[in-house]
Amino acid sequence: MIDSRGGGSERPIFDEDDSDLADNQEFDRALSTGTELLSQGNASDARLALEKALRYKPRNQRARNLLGLSLFKLGELPRAEEIYRSLIEDHPADPTLRVNLGLVFLKLNASPDAVRCFETALDLAPNHQKAQNYLGLALAQKGELARAREWFLKAGNDAMAERMAQALQQSPIRAVADGAAEALAAEQPFKPATEEKAGSAPSMPPAAPAAAAAPAAAGPAVSKKGDTLETAKPKALDAALTGRHRAQWVATDPGMPAAPPISPNVARTASGAVVGNAPEPSLPPTSPSELPEPTVEPPPPSMSQYTSARRLDVPDGKGGFVIGPTEILIHVRGEMLTRLDGLVASWGSLTMKPELKRFRGKATDKPFGEGSRRMVRASGEGRYVISREGRQFTALELDDEPAYFREEVLFAFEESILFENGRVPAKSGQDLHLVHLRGRGKLLLASQGTPRAVDVHKGEPLRIPMEQLIGWHGPLIQPRLVAIVEEAPELGVALELAGEGRALVDVLPGR
User: Fold this and answer.
1) Which CATH number does the domain housing residue 448 bear?
2) For the residues of 46-111, what is the DSSP string, one character each?
3) Which domain holds residue 373?
4) Among 82, 101, 102, 119, whose CB has the most other CB atoms within 10 angstroms?
5) 276: phi > 0 → left, psi -120 to 50 → alpha, else beta; which?
6) Does residue 423 sit within a domain?
7) Three-state DSSP class for 160?
8) How far apart are CA 229 and CA 226, in angstroms?
9) pLDDT tens digits for 351-371?
10) Residue 394 falls inside a structural domain
11) pLDDT tens digits along 41-88
């Protein structure tokens, strides 16, 4: 590599990122076009552009994911299912992919499969709020209203939780169960369900009969105390009963009633019908007759009172990066390269210019980052406030040592740090895009979990699943992409580091 400031050179350890091959250029154009069309709501044309992109890079995760979303919006659910299944095989630890597949099943009314997808996603990310909410929808579609209500409460969807409670109260099986409970409280034992006519053989003695479950298709109006549920006769009674002495039995234990399947004819509540197969929950419709009793509300605060009490939590800092509980502060003095996704507000006199990728000390014609995650060069003096949005931010100091980071993890760095973009090519599937940093200055990383360091020992190559890699530093470390299991490439790809140094890995919450 040629240092644009000092002269010197060294042998690069990875190839130029997005080399000048026409195929890579066409892929970038098609992916960018498909992303833009999808954001505009044009799923049909987005699909064509994304299919074109995948002809150049068939295993690209982002293009496949966006194509699956396009197909979902177009109603081509079987093909969307196929795409998300293949993505999960390549990236089994990504909970978002399982949520997407679960939504496909939800739209197909395949509620058991949807439940399994959302439950697995929550095993990977227990606090995934969307997965909690969608699991509630899948359970409601399946007919398990009590469990659905629990998950809606965990997701903070009180409206849907209330609708589940109302549907449970109006369930015909609940009415039968209530009737059975009242009958149990009576002093007299149960009588056979059918009375013997005069002159016939005496009926069975009133011994404690076996409990019976309600049939799945119980009618909606079962309300009288003492009403019975006709059930299949237990096999053990065959030898004991003759045709004249067989009787129908009543339930003696209401048990836990099975919830009816969600359908417009069954699950109707005072707030409207429960639609379990909707991909997104909606608030129940209200009308004046359904509104609660009016209550006396305190007077609203004045504008000045509200703005005084509801101040933005801006971290206090003199320069560089300051990480707060919900926002981070990026203080620019001179020049700073930074992303702006999650921007809440900014102050000061700053000019911004989109940054291009660099290779061997020279700027290329490729953008550094895509869409809202485009890297920009901010000049002047001012501050940016960025919302954390569930991300883990880590500020580090680079002390004149080379370091390599995954491109999407590097959020910002001072202009005093030299950078070069590159990639580690893969034999098949997705290449690893990296940024090589050297010099002195501060940098900021954005990851899903807390970065943890692991040692790289000479003669003992270290392998890290590509999705878990943050970066590494150390002398003469050589990277290459390999299958995690040589004979089972479907288990994913890892980066192998050979040499001496330390690597940073992304440890997800809950692990």
Assistant:
1) 3.60.160.10
2) HHHHHHHHHHH-TT-HHHHHHHHHHHHHHT-HHHHHHHHHHHHHH-TT-HHHHHHHHHHHHHTT-H
3) 320-507
4) 102
5) alpha
6) yes
7) helix
8) 10
9) 999 999 998 778 888 899 988
10) yes
11) 999 999 999 999 998 888 898 999 999 999 999 999 999 999 999 898
